[in-house]
Write the structure tokens for this entry.
Amino acid sequence: MRKYKAIIIAAVIGLLAATAQADVDIVTVTVGNPGNANDTYGDGYGGVDYVYNIGKYEVTTGQYTEFLNAVAATDTYGLYNTNMGDPTFPTRGCNIQRSGSPGSYAYSVDPIWADRPVNFVSWGNAARFSNWLHNSQPTGAQGLGTTEDGSYFLDGAMSYPELFLITREADATWVIPSEDEWYKAAYHKNDGVTGNYFDYPTSSDSTPSNDLIDPDPGNNATFYDSIVPDYTIGSPFWRTEVGAHENSDSPYGTFDQGGNVWEWNETRFGDTHRGIRGGSFGGNVGDLHADTLSHNNVIGDNTYYLIGFRVAEVVPEPGTITLLALGGLLAIRRRR
């Protein structure tokens, strides 16, 4: 029995050590109220019958830089877009700089840019980032153990038809949110299994302002006010640091689901498009509204300076956790 205990303790210590070595910390909030009703806008989104976690913030430039340094020394599948390195108008990239040559690429970003959302990220690259998180943030070439399998089986998929057909795997952990998951986290009033939703992801039915004020009075977001006209912030950053509107979060506690950058979701449209939600620093306030449904090509085009993403985390049901634990103990006993 002592032998089994020692093995279990060693396994737990190893797991904790592996977790401690991970460089990217995705802060999440829990989205509860499973079984809530859909909203009545449009096709009716937001009903989710399970508990899940979602990123409190959009994936940042600093986090994506860590990802690149872990798996893109060669960058087989184009996780780095050269437009990222040009922050000047009209490109307005996120200022991730690449140095070196294939096989020894290195990536860096000035700290003043690190907490702003990454842009120029395709849907496929968001899926590869999710796989990397699923695989516990390994370091190495882009392959099945790093970016090509995990929550999504990509295995080198790069073309429109291939990326369009990709679906979430049954054992996925870190994922691109579905339309319903994204919508619920942004707009649902967090008041039980109701169909009550706000019009804007700032916990408000009133049109937000695009002011950046300290302290934030609430109901603000980063977008282009076409009436004034005026950006929240202009050159060189365009995007505010994630969570800068500190009192303008959704009822579940997410920030910037309205404005800063459009965010990918899993929903498929037509033959080549995936859903995007939330508006951007370059769009007007109407893009933030709950009834604004949009989509974009699954691989790059010249609008990607407005598009980033956030990730969600699948929460195993309690029964699943118990089965996994029992399975682990049985495996240990079989090896004695």
Notes: Helices lie at 2-21, 61-71, 111-114, 123-134, 160-165, 179-187, 318-334.
